[in-house]
Design goal:
The chain is mostly helical.
C-alpha cells in the first residue's frame, strides 16, 4: 500500500495515535483487497525466502537442504497455481448435479448397450481375439491421427522454413547486387538506416507491444482464475458498466466545461496538443510501415513462388534488366520477321488457290481425255493399255528416285562426318590458346581473390574500428551538445538577471539623482510615491466612472422610454406640420378668388 505520508516515522506515529489520515485509507485498502491479502498471508507462511549467509552455505549438507527447500517452494507454487485454476473452473452445485445426472444416464445407456453386445457375442467364436484386434485397430487409428497431425505440423514448419530460406536467399542476392553496384558510402548509409529502424523497433515499438501483450495476458490469467460467473451476475456487471460509462461522460462534460476557460491560460496546451498529434502520427506511420513491410514480404514471396513455377515450367529463369531489354528487342525483331512471313504466307496462299483452281481445271480435262482414250482403246481392242503404261512409268520413277536418294544419303553422311571431323579439329586448334589464357586467368583470379579477401578483412576491421570511434564520437558530441545547451540556457538566465539588475540600478540612480536635484514633483521623493499617487488618482477616477456607469445603467430604461416618447412627439409634430401645409395649399386658390372679387367690388 502506498501511504499518503512519505515519512515512515510519521506513519508509525499516526498508527499509534489512531490518525484518521492513516487509519481510514489503511482500512479501505484492507477491506477492498481482503481476498488478495488473505491469499498473500497464507502464501507468505510457506514462500518466505530464507536468508542463509554464504559462509554457512559452504557446508554441503546445508546447501543441499537449502536447494531442497527451494525445490519444495517451487512445487508448492505449481500446486497452488493448479488449485487456483481448478477453483476457477469449478461449477455451481446445480450444474454439477445436472452433469452427474447426465453422466449417470449415459452410464446406464452404455451398460445396457454393453449387455446387449455381450448377449450377441456370447455364441461367437474367438471373441477375445476379435476384441484384441478391435483395440489394436483403435490404437492404430489414434496413432494414424497423431501422425497425420504431426505430419501437418511438420509441413507447416517446412513451409515456414522454406519461406525463411527464400527470404534469406533474396536478401543475399540483394546484398550481393548492392555490393557490386554500390559504393561503401551507400552501403554505410543503408546500414545506418536499417540500424535506426531496428533500434526504433527494439527501443519503442517492441517494448510497447510486449507490454500490451503482457497486460492482456495478465488480465486473461486473472479472468481465468476467477470463479465461473452466472448469467445474473453478467447482467448486473453490464448494468454497472453502463452506469459507470454514463457517470464518466457526465464527469467529462463537467471537466470540459470547467477547463474551457483554463485552456486559454495554459501556455503549454498547444504544445501538448501538437505532441499528442505527433505521437498519433508516429504510431500510425509505424503501423503503416509494418503493414507495408508485411505486404512487401508477401509480394516478394509470391514473386519468388511464381518465378520458381515459371522456371519449372519453362526451364529458364525470369529475365530482368538488360536481359529483358535484349529479350524485348529480339521479340520485336521476331515480330517483324513474323509479319514478313505472314505476308509471304498470304501471297503463297493466293498462288496456292490459283494453282488449285488450275489443277481442278486440268483434272477435269484429263478425265475427259482419259474417257476419250478409253473409248478409243475399246474400239481398237487394247483396253487398259494406258493404265498399265502409267503404272510402269510410276514404278520406274520411284526406283530411280530411291537409287538417287540412297546415293545422296551416303554422300551426305560421309560429308557430315568429314564436316564434323573438320569442325572438331578447328575447335581444338581454336581452344588451345583459350585454354592457355584460361590457366593464366585462373592464376590471376586466385591472386586477386586472395588480395580481395585480405582487403575485405582489412576493410571490415577498419569499419569496425570506425564504427566504434563513430559511436564514441557521437556519444561525446551528444554530451558536449547537452553541456552546451545547459551552459547556453544558464547564460541566457544570467543575461536576463543582469538586465533586470541593471534596470534596478539605473532606476535607483535616477531616483537618487532626482531626489538630489529636486526635479521630482512636489510632495514626491521617488518613483514609488509618484506611481502610488497616480494609481490612487486612477482608482478614484475608475471609481467615479463605475459610479457613473451604474447611474447610467439604472436610468437607462427610463431614458430609453423618454427618448421613445420624444421621438413619438417629434413624429406627431411633423405630421401636424405636414397637415397644416397641405391645408394651406388647398385654401390658397380660394383666398385668391375671394380677393379678386373684393377688388372688383371696390372698383365698381
Amino acid at each position: 500500500m502506498k501511504c499518503q505520508v512519505a515519512d515512515p516515522y510519521a506513519t508509525h506515529q499516526g498508527l499509534l495515535h489512531g490518525s484518521k489520515t492513516i487509519i481510514f485509507p489503511l482500512l479501505h485498502w484492507l477491506f477492498a483487497n481482503g481476498d488478495t491479502l488473505k491469499k498473500r498471508a497464507y502464501l507468505a507462511r510457506f514462500l518466505r525466502p530464507i536468508d542463509v549467509p554464504a559462509e554457512v552455505l559452504a557446508d554441503e549438507a546445508i546447501a543441499t537442504t537449502h536447494q531442497q527447500v527451494k525445490a519444495l517452494m517451487e512445487e508448492f507454487k505449481k500446486t497452488h497455481r493448479t488449485l487456483d485454476q481448478m477453483r476457477g473452473q469449478s461449477l455451481s452445485p446445480e450444474s454439477l448435479n445436472s452433469k452427474i445426472m447426465q453422466l449417470q444416464e449415459e452410464k446406464g445407456q452404455l451398460e445396457g448397450r454393453n449387455a446387449r453386445l455381450n448377449k450377441r457375442l456370447r455364441n461367437v467364436p474367438n471373441v477375445v481375439e476379435y476384441l484384441k484386434a478391435v483395440s489394436e485397430l483403435r490404437r492404430e487409428s489414434e496413432r494414424t491421427t497423431e501422425l497425420a497431425s504431426s505430419l501437418k505440423e511438420q509441413k507447416r514448419l517446412l513451409v515456414v522454413c522454406d519461406q525463411h530460406n527464400l527470404n534469406t536467399l533474396q536478401r543475399l542476392k540483394d546484398v550481393k547486387a548492392e555490393a557490386t553496384h554500390a559504393d561503401a558510402g551507400e552501403m554505410l548509409a543503408k546500414l545506418e538506416a536499417d540500424t535506426n529502424t531496428n533500434r526504433y523497433l527494439l527501443s519503442q515499438k517492441l517494448p510497447k507491444d510486449l507490454e500490451e501483450k503482457r497486460k492482456k495476458l495478465d488480465s486473461l490469467d486473472q479472468i481465468q482464475r476467477q470463479p465461473v460467473v452466472s448469467d445474473e451476475e453478467i447482467s448486473e456487471m453490464q448494468t454497472d458498466v453502463k452506469r459507470l460509462k454514463m457517470e464518466i461522460n457526465v464527469l467529462l462534460d463537467q471537466h470540459g466545461g470547467s477547463n474551457a476557460g483554463g485552456v486559454a491560460d495554459d501556455k503549454l496546451y498547444v504544445y501538448r496538443q501538437q505532441a499528442r498529434t505527433i505521437a498519433q502520427r508516429k504510431a500510425e506511420s509505424t503501423t503503416r510501415f509494418e503493414e507495408l513491410a508485411r505486404e512487401r514480404d508477401r509480394l516478394k514471396h509470391d514473386l519468388d513462388a511464381k518465378e520458381a513455377a515459371y522456371q519449372n515450367i519453362a526451364g529458364t529463369k525470369v529475365l530482368k534488366g538488360q536481359e529483358f531489354v535484349r529479350y524485348a528487342e529480339g521479340l520485336r525483331e521476331k515480330g517483324k520477321q513474323c509479319k514478313a512471313l505472314k505476308e509471304d504466307l498470304a501471297r503463297i496462299r493466293t498462288e496456292n488457290g490459283i494453282l488449285n483452281r488450275t489443277e481442278q481445271v486440268l483434272k477435269e480435262r484429263v478425265s475427259s481425255v482419259e474417257e476419250a482414250l478409253q473409248h478409243v482403246e475399246r474400239e481398237k481392242g487394247v483396253e487398259g493399255y494406258l493404265g498399265t503404261q502409267e503404272g510402269l512409268e510410276r514404278v520406274s520413277v520411284l526406283k530411280s528416285q530411291l537409287d538417287e536418294n540412297k546415293g545422296k544419303t551416303l554422300e551426305e553422311i560421309s560429308q557430315v562426318v568429314r564436316d564434323i571431323n573438320a569442325n572438331v579439329k578447328e575447335r581444338k586448334t581454336q581452344l588451345v590458346p583459350i585454354v592457355k589464357e584460361l590457366k593464366t586467368v585462373r592464376s590471376q583470379f586466385q591472386d586477386i581473390q586472395t588480395r580481395h579477401t585480405d582487403k575485405k578483412s582489412l576493410y571490415q576491421n577498419t569499419m569496425t574500428g570506425m564504427e566504434s570511434e563513430l559511436a564514441k564520437l557521437e556519444h561525446d558530441l551528444a554530451t558536449i551538445n547537452a553541456d552546451c545547451a545547459k551552459e547556453e540556457s544558464r547564460f541566457h538566465e544570467l543575461q536576463d538577471s543582469l538586465q533586470s539588475v541593471n534596470a534596478l540600478v539605473e532606476r535607483a540612480l535616477a531616483e537618487e539623482e532626482f531626489a538630489a536635484q529636486g526635479s521630482v514633483p512636489e510632495g514626491v521623493t521617488c518613483y514609488l510615491e509618484e506611481y502610488s499617487k497616480r494609481i490612487r488618482e486612477l482608482e478614484v477616477e475608475s471609481r467615479a466612472l463605475r459610479e457613473e456607469q451604474m447611474r447610467i445603467k439604472e436610468s437607462h430604461d427610463g431614458n430609453l422610454r423618454q427618448l421613445e416618447m420624444f421621438e413619438h412627439v417629434r413624429q406627431l409634430l411633423e405630421c401636424k406640420i405636414h397637415l397644416y401645409m397641405r391645408e394651406g395649399q388647398e385654401l390658397q386658390p380660394h383666398s385668391d378668388a375671394m380677393g379678386m372679387q373684393v377688388e372688383r367690388l371696390v372698383m365698381g
